[in-house]
Amino acid sequence: MNVTLGVASGDYIQVMGELAVGEQVITVGNERMRPGQQVRVKGGASE
């Protein structure tokens, strides 16, 4: 799934695209990601 990042304000950034409620997205460091790469969730709005 591809999303578009929009307006940033402090620790928040607008994410636009076809997202389901509760779905997580990578907003920092995504330029180094490769298909199938494992990730570890650290921080975020749920913590």
First CA to last CA: what distance? 24 Å
* Helix fraction by DSSP (H/I, runs of at least 4): under 10%
User: How many structural domains does the protein architecture include?
Assistant: 1
Shape assignment? globular
Q: Based on DSSP secondary structure assignment, what is the total number of beta strands?
A: 2
Unreliable segments of 5+ consecutive residues: none
Q: Could you describe the 3D structure shown?
A:
This protein has 47 residues and is mostly beta strands. It has one domain (1-47). The protein is built from no helices and 2 strands. Strands 1-2 form a two-stranded antiparallel ribbon. The protein starts with a strand and ends in a 31-residue tail after the last strand. 0% of the residues are buried.
Write a brief structural summary.
The protein has one domain (1-47). It is built from no helices and two strands. The chain has strands at residues 4-9, 12-16.
Topology:
Layout: E1 4-9, E2 12-16
Antiparallel strand pairs: 1-2
Task: Name the descriptors.
mainly beta, two-stranded antiparallel sheet, 2 strands, 23% strand
